[in-house]
Amino acid sequence: MKIKLEKRAKVAFTEMFTKAVIMARKTKDAAILNNVYLMAASQKEQIHIISSTRDEYLHQCLDLNRFNDEFTIEEDGSCVMPVEFDILAKKFGGKSIKIEASEDTKVKISSGSSKIDLICMKAADYPLRKLSQPDLRVKIDTEVFKNMINRAAFSASDNDTRPVLKGVQFAAINNELSVIGTDSYRVSMITCEFDTKQIDKDLNIVLPAALIREACKKYLNSDQIELQISSNDNKVTIFTGNTVYQVTLLVDNFPEVKKLVPNEFNQIFRIGRDDLINAIELLNPLINEASNYSKGTIKIVFKKSSTLISTPSTELGSGSIKLESSVVEGVLEEDIEVWLSAKYLLDILKLGLHSRHATIKFIDSLKPVVLDEEPYNQSKFIVLPVRKR
Questions:
Q1: Backbone angles phi, psi at 129, to 5 degrees
Q2: 3-state DSSP call for residue 289?
Q3: Which residue among 43, 229, 231, 377 is least crowded, i.e. fewest CB within 10 A of its CB?
Q4: Which strands, in side-by-side order, build the sheet including 306-310?
Q5: pLDDT by position in tens, the chain (length 389)
């Protein structure tokens, strides 16, 4: 394999290689997967950059047609490139960079007067994947997908006790698209209208939350993506621009969270989202100094025209902040007091809710608290109160 990259092609190649390195550095499954696979194909005028782990697969394609004469394939072939090349490529000062895999385990890199020889693993030993025939194809706007994933995935569990809760449910049923994350103590449920006529059957899969959240940030960069789901190997493959990203699905049954959402409430309050965030962050040093079961919790008392945020008593002291609020629905005959996890509430306010005001719905102080935003029904966030002893 012999390739030469100049100017914009060099920049594009190194950017793709950096993304591949991020994935390659994560794997602990096999030594060869700590490298990046490169393949040059002059007939298609493309170079392929591949990396993978046990659960993920990333295939990027650099097309020569985009760069005129800035990218040349002098000889077809493949090699397994060490991740250290990422640093070398950025340090080379020349205007161009040339990569030559003249022998099976040696790669020569040159730029200007600089030359480096690398010892590599055999390209034939790299475990390339063959994509399975999909059972279902779904096209969706990339920003819609990323927005829904990011607003739900933070509620997923990071505990191995129930592996399925480390994922988010992604479903398209009855002209509605929904993404749900939960760790049993809180729930994020994001929905939007979706024309399910474009797919042959209902879609209901569980994506690994941490991996798909990272993929949204690093790999999905086109206006529209296509998801291809294969039941044969329990994988979803996402096609986005010049990139193919594949991840293994979680196969356990996701809890039927929608049935847990109350439909009727005794009181509904509206409070400024930023005001509530600022109050909790101001009290956080005291909140985190509390001992035993009170650590990390805040007390919220809802009144007719105000809300009082306060902390447990700690060695540092205690604090309270009064905020303006209003009763949207229900007759408030007496104050409502509820204890909540400050972290969970902050996550919802900062990562989930996007509106200026937060709407907080109660049945009573011991039942799940529901937060949503205007317009209603596009998102719901549920958090369980902390029972005080």
A1: -105, 145
A2: coil
A3: 43
A4: 203-208, 167-173, 176-182, 186-193, 379-383, 369-372, 357-362, 267-272, 320-329, 306-310, 297-302, 336-341
A5: 999 988 888 889 999 999 999 999 988 778 999 999 999 998 888 999 999 999 999 999 998 888 877 888 999 999 999 999 888 877 776 678 999 997 678 899 988 888 888 889 999 999 998 888 888 999 999 999 999 999 999 999 999 889 999 999 999 988 899 999 999 999 999 999 988 888 888 899 999 999 999 999 999 988 999 999 988 889 999 999 999 999 999 988 999 988 878 888 888 899 999 999 999 999 988 887 766 667 788 999 998 889 999 988 877 788 999 999 888 877 777 888 899 999 999 999 999 998 899 999 988 888 889 998 765 567 899 999 887 65
Rounded CA separation 123/198 (Å): 40
* Domain count of the fold of the chain: 3
The domain that holds 59 is classified in CATH as 3.10.150.10
Show which of 258, 291, 316 is a domain's final residue.
Answer: 258
Three-state SS string across 92-118, please?
CCCCEEEEEEEECCEEEEEECCEEEEE
d(CA 94, CA 311): 59
Q: Do 6 and 24 reside in the same domain of the chain?
A: yes
Tokens of 333: 């005959």
**Phi, psi at residue 76, to the nearest 5°?**
-70, 165
The two structure tokens encoding residue 357: 């005001």
